[in-house]
Each structure stands twice: as C-alpha cells, then as structure tokens.
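Same chain as my last thread, 415 residues:
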Amino acid sequence: MNRLKKIYCRVFQLCFRAVLPILPYREPKLIEGFQGVPEVLHSHKIERILLVTDPGVYTLGLTSPLEKELKESGITCTVYKDTVANPTSANVEEARMQYLEHECQALIAFGGGSSMDCAKAVGARLARPKKSLAKMERLLHVARKLPLLIAVPTTAGTGSETTLAAVITDAETHHKYPINDFALIPAYAVMEPNVTFGLPPQLTATTGMDALTHAVEAYIGRSTTKQTRAAAIEAIQLIFENLPEAYQNGKNKEARSNMLHASYLAGMAFTQSYVGYVHAIAHSLGGRYGIAHGLANSVLLPHVLEAYGSSAHKKLAKLARICNISDSENDAEAANAFIAHIRSMNQFMNIPDTLPGILNEDIPMLAKYADKEANPLYPVPVLWDTDKLEQMYHKVQEVTNYDRTGNSDHSGKAA
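reply #2:
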C-alpha cells in the first residue's frame, strides 16, 4: 500500500476511535426464552409481525414454538422463509413486500446471520423506502429508525443479534457488501438454547469459528476499548472451552448456552472495535461463489493471522497466555501456538484448510472488493494493498481442476 493511502487509513481509524465513546452504540435487551416475546410485543402495542427465516430453519420446525406463543397471545405472525445463505437484494424486496401486504408492525429475525441480515435490510428499506440498498452500503447511510426488530439466533456464531451490520449480495452483480448503521442494532435478542440443539455438527463448527473470528479480529485490531477487550477475551475462552463439546454433543445444553453467550459477547466486541481482513475476504467469496460465511472465516482465520506476522504477535501472545495455550515469554512463539491451536480445532471439527471453486481470473476483482470494504474502515494490525490480499485468496484456493497458474489439470493435481 502506498504511503499516502496508509496515512489516510490510519488517520481515518484514529478519528473513528476518538469518537467511539460518544457514538450511539447500544446493547439489545435480552429476552430469556420464547415466552417473553409476546409480553414485549404487547408493551409496544404490536399486533402483527413478520418473522424472517430460512428454509432449513423453517423445515426443521424451529419457529413453531414461537409461532404458537404468538398465536396464543393474539399476535398475528406472517412468515417469510426464503432467505438464502448469502441473502440477496431480491430476498429483501420479497420480504419487504410481504411485510407491507400484511400490514405488519415489527420484525422478528429468526435464524443465523443470513436471516438476521435479511431482516435488518428489510427494516432499512422500510425506514428508507426511496433509497436502494446499494446506496446504503458502508457506514451510516440508513440514518432512520427501523420498525421494532427482535433477533432470535439459532446459531452460536454470527453475533448478528448484537451488531449494527447487515451484509447483502446484489442479486444481479453478485457483489456482496456491508451496510453499517446504529439503526440496525436489534432492540431485543432472545436467548433460547433449545433451538440450537438440532444444528448439524458441521454448522455448529463453522458458526462457532465465525464467533471466534469476530472476537479475535476485534481484539487484535487498533480500535479496542476496555469493554470490547474484556468481551472478546471472555468470548474466546468460552469458545475454546465449549465449541468442541457442542460439536461432539449437540444436545449439551450448557455447552450450547455458553456458545450463545460467547457469540453475543463476540458480537458486542466487533460491533464497536470492528473486524479485519478475514471478514473482507470472506464477504467477497460469499458474494462471488456463495461460500458460507462461517466456513470462509474458519478457513481464512489461521492463514490471515499468520500473514499478519509480528504486527499481531504481542496481542495473540497475550491471548495464548490468558487461555493457557502457551506459557512462553517469547511473543512470536506464544502467538504461533495460538494460531496452531485454531488450526487444531479446525482439524478436530473436520474444517478444511482450503476452499473450493476460487478461480484465478476472479482473484484481482475479489481483492478489489476486499480492499474497498476493509480500507480505511477496519483497524487491522497491518495495512495490506490488493497485491497482498490476492495472496490470501491463493493461500486458501483449493488446487484441483484449476491450478494457481491458471492451467487446467483434470487429474486433480496441480500442474
């Protein structure tokens, strides 16, 4: 990255950090269990809601207990169940039209990060009906109060129930972009571990590592506060202690509850302190190839941390010591032990070291998207330009039918 751009990025980040204490961050109010939802809605004089979810969650019947609670309380619940893994602008418009047709008064986001993002974007379009989602990209372009939004996380990983972010994929261009605005923070979050019992082990693994990515990137960035550092540390400890058990025994209520709490804490940390290049790269991969965000983060995290090198060693070493992963006084050794621990967790949970389908001709474009998202907003330990970002795509590129030099190889091996 050239010197002028580096100066611009760091000055931008310093200014943003300076105003952190006066920015209108807020924590969602917690609702313990589904039974508390009707009471909250009645207190806001709401009689009709739109519940936004995805086909998998709906087919498993996870929304049924909440729908029953609402019906028994005299609240009409309309369900939009077609949210895709990387929610598109088309999803948002379909759900918005359903909201308007049924004269709904509030939104319930029920599911993982995709359903949360879709519901937030629906709220943004309802608040700003004359403004397209594309024009709300990046920071503070909503600037209007949304309809009441209640978040019900079914995966312990995205932290979307706490954040000001929604990530949407343009249905026509496939460009995946973030919308960040304080208005997008849900008013309430429902903690109900029972809805996570039926998650497949692999989804438990990748969403859990997604939460770890949130916490680690927030902690090692340059815009932390005492509060976000504490939240990130607690989240990391809870994930290391509980994710392997939740992966192996999905019905362990304590492990599931702790993972929901970890996801919430990690969400609180990165909402204020932001993430880094892992997320920027993962978003571009999700937009282009539909790669699930949690999987992309899981695979990318150790590669990016390693590539940060000495710029991240001190903070990673501190995490390694706090989590009893290393007692080495040498920062580089302790940091490398922390990265190795992440790799061993991935291996234990059968998370691959590479991602399929990344084409060489796409990488320059993907790197430009990542650069646009991350710089100057993300307070990363070290600044990268598109050339360095391109290297990260190659690091995680699965070499099968298309090698890293662009040569076809139908044997499945690199040429």
